[in-house]
User: Which sequence fits this backbone?
């Protein structure tokens, strides 16, 4: 919870004012039974009607002041807790945006979503409730006890003797419930993940008739979440009835003892009536305090989860310039535009996903990457864009280790389109521009080069035609051409296409390759593909298997010297066409 301190501090004066108004309202409410006791015991026996109206007016004024103060304070607490949560949610989102891919892999997207939504909501409720009840309930409790002690010390002992029992109950419930609420939020992460997978893969699920299986899968997660929530709820539910039982038992003792004391002339009836009013106030105050502890349990668990993300260290730090100069001067000649120098990398630290990979590309050259699933093709792009850092070796751009290049400068060099990239809801122009300061002419040129101009012109509105969420109203080929347009729009220094033309027919694919060759001669390209025809014209072709290089060269060189490449080429292009 101490992590929240810096978010609360800017609103400290506002929260203090809120609690001050709450304090005023609590004091006004405590005075009402006191004035009633004076009326019953001191004023009514004398028959002074004006004095009755005077104290009655004071009671009405206290009630009005209490109502006004509570309404104002509640509204103020909603404002401050909302602003604090907004700042916290913004920083959490920014932190998630800057986490490395490795950190996000450990955190998982579903956990990130639940921390950004349900956990911050729980913190918001904690902040609001603490301002509403955090001052009022303790003041009502302590003030009620003080007023009762001043009126009738003997009867007050019956209540004071019960408070330690209530304290023990609250302590035990809080200690047991915090771990359960933390476990509940973890299970909520699992449910979010299952929902994500179902929403994303709904077409596949229906196509394979797996609806019943997914229902059972969701049922298992939902049942486990329900079990944990019920267990936590059963524990916290002990507080209210047990507190009410203890306090009502004390109230019964007060009524019985008070009756004997009034009968013996040691106490007045007005004191007993006021005493009962204070007892009700104390009972409500104790119930309010127990609600605070229940909310605290949930809020503390959520605060720990949010703090875990905010406390994550920066994983991909930029190395100092001295190392950059060393990398530049290591080669005697002009450095390559892109170079992988004996790179070894593993996602999980167990088996190598890339092993001793080396290649270099001059500006304007192209590299085609071919290999089976899991061979490490996409890993090359991940390392080049520095989503991950290699365990061994170095990745260089213009002779500079990517670990020495600031993030903004590095990402500005790339245009990238991935096989499973996303299309957002908006217009076609919005998706191609993607919040970059690009002119309309750049969008039109990119769409033409990506062979997307034809289908864009056929849609009503052209570039301003709306696109559904995730591009659900686009075909696979249209979606890929839109994504390639986005990659080309800024005329990047380096173009990365990760199987981004797999849904294109051969003719469109050929037109795309021709447009790239004619219009982007100064752009260095890395093309990952499953088709030989998509990469055969590349300056270099890299063949991977299980993270290892099994072939490197031109199409002709690989046809002559790489058996695996030759087999793939023959299977795709025919026995007599591989060298055509």
Assistant:
């Amino acid at each position: 919870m101490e992590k929240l301190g810096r978010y609360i501090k800017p609103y400290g004066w506002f929260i203090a004012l809120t609690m001050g108004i709450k304090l005023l309202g609590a004091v006004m409410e405590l005075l009402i039974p006191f004035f009633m006791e004076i009326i019953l015991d001191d004023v009514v026996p004398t028959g002074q009607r004006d004095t009755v109206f005077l104290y009655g007016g004071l009671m009405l004024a206290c009630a009005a002041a209490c109502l006004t103060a509570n309404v104002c304070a509640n509204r103020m607490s909603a404002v401050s807790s909302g602003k604090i949560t907004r700042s916290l949610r913004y920083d959490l989102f920014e932190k998630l945006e800057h986490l490395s891919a490795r950190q996000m892999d450990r955190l998982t997207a579903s956990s990130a979503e639940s921390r950004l939504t349900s956990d911050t909501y729980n913190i918001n409720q904690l902040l609001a409730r603490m301002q509403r009840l955090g001052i009022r309930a303790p003041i009502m409790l302590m003030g009620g006890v003080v007023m009762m002690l001043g009126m009738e010390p003997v009867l007050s002992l019956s209540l004071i003797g019960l408070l330690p029992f209530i304290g023990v109950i609250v302590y035990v419930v809080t200690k047991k419930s915090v771990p359960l609420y933390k476990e509940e939020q973890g299970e909520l992460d699992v449910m979010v993940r299952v929902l994500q997978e179902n929403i994303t893969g709904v077409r596949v699920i229906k196509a394979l008739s797996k609806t019943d299986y997914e229902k059972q899968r969701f049922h298992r997660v939902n049942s486990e979440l329900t079990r944990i929530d019920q267990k936590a709820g059963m524990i916290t539910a002990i507080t209210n009835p047990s507190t009410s039982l203890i306090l009502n038992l004390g109230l019964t003792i007060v009524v019985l003892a008070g009756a004997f004391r009034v009968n013996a002339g040691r106490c007045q009836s007005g004191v007993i009536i006021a005493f009962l009013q204070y007892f009700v106030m104390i009972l409500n105050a104790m119930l309010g305090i127990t609600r605070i502890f229940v909310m605290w349990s949930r809020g503390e668990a959520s605060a720990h989860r949010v703090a875990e993300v905010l406390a994550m260290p920066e994983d991909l730090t930029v190395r100092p310039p001295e190392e950059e100069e060393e990398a530049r001067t290591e080669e005697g000649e002009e450095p390559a535009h892109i170079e992988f120098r004996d790179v070894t990398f593993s996602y999980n630290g167990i088996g190598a996903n890339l092993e001793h990979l080396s290649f270099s590309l001059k500006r304007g050259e192209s590299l085609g990457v071919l290999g089976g699933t899991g061979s490490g093709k996409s890993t090359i792009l991940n390392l080049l864009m520095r989503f991950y850092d290699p365990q061994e070796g170095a990745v260089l751009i213009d002779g500079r280790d990517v670990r020495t290049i600031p993030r903004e400068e590095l990402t500005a060099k790339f245009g990238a389109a991935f096989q499973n990239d996303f299309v957002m809801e908006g217009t076609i122009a919005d998706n191609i521009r993607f919040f970059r300061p690009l002119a309309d002419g750049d969008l039109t040129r990119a769409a033409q080069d990506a062979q997307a101009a034809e289908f864009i012109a056929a849609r009503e509105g052209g570039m301003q035609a709306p696109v559904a969420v995730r591009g659900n109203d686009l075909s696979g080929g249209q979606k890929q051409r839109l994504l390639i347009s986005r990659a080309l729009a800024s005329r990047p220094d380096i173009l990365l296409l990760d199987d981004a033309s797999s849904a294109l027919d051969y003719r469109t694919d050929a037109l795309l390759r021709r447009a790239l060759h004619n219009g982007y001669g100064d752009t260095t390209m890395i093309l990952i593909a499953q088709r030989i025809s998509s990469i055969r014209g590349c300056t270099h072709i890299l063949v991977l298997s299980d993270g290892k290089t099994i072939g490197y060269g031109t199409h002709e060189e690989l046809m002559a010297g790489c058996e695996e490449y030759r087999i793939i080429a023959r299977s795709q292009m025919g026995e007599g066409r591989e060298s055509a």
